[in-house]
User: Which sequence fits this backbone?
């Protein structure tokens, strides 16, 4: 089995799905001859040609809007937004059309669209290239939001996203793009949307994270492990739909929870998680749920970003607080 | 280096039927007499529907409604050039086009009365539902045309918009994509001069809207939007051009919104009655009627038959709509995703158990 990076795993998933389903189309800025600015779509242009791997003008609303039209027409478009900070130009198309064409047409039309975008900080990128804006999408009824954390996860989740009959926002942790290699089967496998996974089993505290923050949560868990605290680390994989059962089961066991996300704190997805934990598991808790998050500030430029992004020491502090140690 | 002119552009305006109903026979599209009469009947039906919808709103039997009074030729004649296999993307002011496409009038009333089932376009019909956010349907229509091109389907897509849409970013992005990829799409702009209270002069400094197409690398044409023949010919030619792989066209149909923006608007606050009076004199239905009369295709008996049929059609639609059983509240959830996620199942259960009470745990 080959050891792949997250970029290579997504590339493999795209190649295999495009080979198996002629309806699958990739479109976006620089996705063709250039293979994408992160090389995620490398080689697709040569394999599938300019009609299925389409270099578009600079046109986020146009790309997403046209992809919606293609999806409604019966294709399976995968639109790439080059960086998450440029997705705002496409928000109207996503919110007003992709997310609601099924309900607006009472099921006559559906929109099997995937919008891929690299997200998050930690790669010393310019302004607007380092944000973690998943909450906007989760807040939009009708969109599914998937955030893979590792290469293996990325392949299985992307195949599910492409085959899903509803629009999926697929947010790729660009900080993990080449940071991890792991074994990724060449053969096809899917990871169903709406299923979280337990990455590390433990008894004392539940760490909840997704995307790039999984590694930070794991680092914090290992540091606390050295101090005898057994952490259970969850990778949510998909924020919408959300696998609440896995979270509740873990909290029933550990009775404590820390949420780690890099997005700003207020109305970040962590806030929703705290609310749902209150609804489903309040009486199992022995301490208030802690959040380790970005701040309610603009994402800093690279020289200050390390102060903004959650890191292992902050996770350790939060775990210490919920453990009262 | 001397200054040189590197490009000159020409722009055409098409009028076939003048304001007195005189026809330029050389330009007249080769429609049989019955087809011309059909155009007239649809235009009368569209106006009858529009007047009825307005009255229903005033009686409290319909929600906010956007009138098409004065724009019947622009809508009916353009939509009549579509084939059933073509796709249509309306904005929110095209009931005349929807009528021609065969959408049950009941559904248009249903939508404006606040019932989503009015947007459940019948399977036989390749039309998008009404789109309210201005210009957002333009990139989507271009995308559907792109889908057709990629699949090799010999169809065309007709995208409607108003003059206000030409100021929006999605107009630019949609037309730009259509030009770059030579998509089989026709952009049909009903320039009715007003976007609520904002006149065309506040939308653009360009002399025409049609000239915008030039910048996107395809042809634009201005037509007299109250001239059913000009509208039909320009649209039919553009659709055929699209179906045969020759790319997009932009059509500016110059017309006028005789009514208020919607039933929630009062146009007397911002425009003169004199302007409205001048445009009423260019009425599209009266113009075609005069033509038919000269051709011996119209008399009082025919008029009575046409108006009676239109009235019956509209009254039947009103009865149908008002007798439609209310929608199931479950419908709020049912179409959010193909399969309802657990969280939504719980919220649906909360709705069914009575809103406001504690959701079940």
Assistant:
């Amino acid at each position: 089995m080959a050891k792949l990076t997250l970029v290579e795993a997504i590339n493999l998933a795209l190649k295999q799905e495009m080979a198996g389903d002629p309806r699958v189309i990739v479109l976006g800025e620089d996705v063709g001859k250039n293979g994408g600015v992160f090389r995620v779509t490398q080689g697709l242009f040569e394999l599938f040609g300019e009609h299925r791997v389409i270099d578009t003008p600079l046109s986020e609303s146009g790309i997403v809007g046209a992809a919606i039209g293609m999806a409604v027409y019966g294709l399976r478009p995968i639109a790439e937004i080059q960086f998450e900070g440029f997705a705002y130009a496409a928000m109207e198309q996503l919110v007003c059309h992709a997310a609601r064409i099924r309900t607006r047409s009472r099921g006559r039309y559906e929109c099997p669209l995937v919008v891929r975008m690299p997200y998050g900080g930690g790669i010393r990128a310019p302004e607007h290239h380092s944000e973690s804006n998943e909450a906007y999408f989760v807040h939009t009824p009708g969109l599914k939001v998937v955030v893979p954390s590792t290469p293996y996860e990325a392949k299985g989740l992307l195949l599910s996203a492409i085959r899903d009959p509803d629009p999926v926002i697929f947010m790729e942790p660009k900080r993990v793009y080449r940071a991890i290699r792991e074994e990724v089967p060449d053969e096809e496998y899917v990871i169903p949307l709406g299923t979280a996974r337990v990455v590390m089993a433990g008894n004392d505290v539940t760490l909840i994270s997704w995307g790039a923050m999984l590694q930070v949560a794991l680092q914090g868990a290992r540091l606390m492990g050295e101090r005898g605290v057994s952490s259970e680390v969850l990778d949510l994989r998909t924020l919408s739909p959300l696998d609440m059962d896995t979270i509740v089961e873990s909290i029933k066991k550990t009775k404590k929870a820390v949420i780690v996300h890099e997005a700003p704190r207020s109305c970040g997805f962590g806030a929703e998680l705290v609310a749902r934990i209150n609804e489903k598991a309040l009486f199992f808790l022995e301490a208030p749920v802690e959040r380790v998050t970005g701040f309610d500030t603009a994402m800093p430029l690279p020289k200050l970003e390390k102060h903004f992004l959650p890191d292992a020491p902050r996770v350790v502090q939060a775990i210490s607080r919920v453990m009262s140690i | 280096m001397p200054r040189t002119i590197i490009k000159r552009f020409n722009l055409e305006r098409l009028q076939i039927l003048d304001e007195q109903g005189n026809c330029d026979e050389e330009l007249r599209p080769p429609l049989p007499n019955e087809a011309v009469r059909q155009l007239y009947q649809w235009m009368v039906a569209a106006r009858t529907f529009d007047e009825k919808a307005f009255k229903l709103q005033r009686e409290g039997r319909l929600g906010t409604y956007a009138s098409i009074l004065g724009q019947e030729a622009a809508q009916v004649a353009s939509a009549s050039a579509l084939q059933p296999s073509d796709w249509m993307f309306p904005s929110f002011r095209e009931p005349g086009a929807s009528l021609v496409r065969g959408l049950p009038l009941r559904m248009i009333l249903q939508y404006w009365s606040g019932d989503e089932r009015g947007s459940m376009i019948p399977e036989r019909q390749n039309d998008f539902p009404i789109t309210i956010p201005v210009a957002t349907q333009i990139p989507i229509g271009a995308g559907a045309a792109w889908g057709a091109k990629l699949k090799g389907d010999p169809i065309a897509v007709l995208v409607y918009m108003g003059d206000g849409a030409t100021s929006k970013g999605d107009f630019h992005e949609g037309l730009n994509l259509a030009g770059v990829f030579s998509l089989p799409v026709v952009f049909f702009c009903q320039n009715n001069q007003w976007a609520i209270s904002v006149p065309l002069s506040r939308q653009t400094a360009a002399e025409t809207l049609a000239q915008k197409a030039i910048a996107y690398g395809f042809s634009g044409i201005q037509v007299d939007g109250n001239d059913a023949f000009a509208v039909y010919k320009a649209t039919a030619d553009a659709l055929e051009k699209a179906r045969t792989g020759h790319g997009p066209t932009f059509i500016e149909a110059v017309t006028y919104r005789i009514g208020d923006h919607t039933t929630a608007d009062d146009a007397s606050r911002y425009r003169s009655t004199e302007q409205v009076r001048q445009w009423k004199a260019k009425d599209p239905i009266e113009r075609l009627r005069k033509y038919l009369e000269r051709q011996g295709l119209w008399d009082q008996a025919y008029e009575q038959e046409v108006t009676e049929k239109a009235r019956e059609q509209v009254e039947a639609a009103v009865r149908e709509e008002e007798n439609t059983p209310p929608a199931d509240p479950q419908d709020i959830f049912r179409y959010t995703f193909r399969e309802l996620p657990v969280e939504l199942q719980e919220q649906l259960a909360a709705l069914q158990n009575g809103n406001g009470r504690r959701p079940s745990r």
Notes: The longest helix of chain B spans residues 33-58.
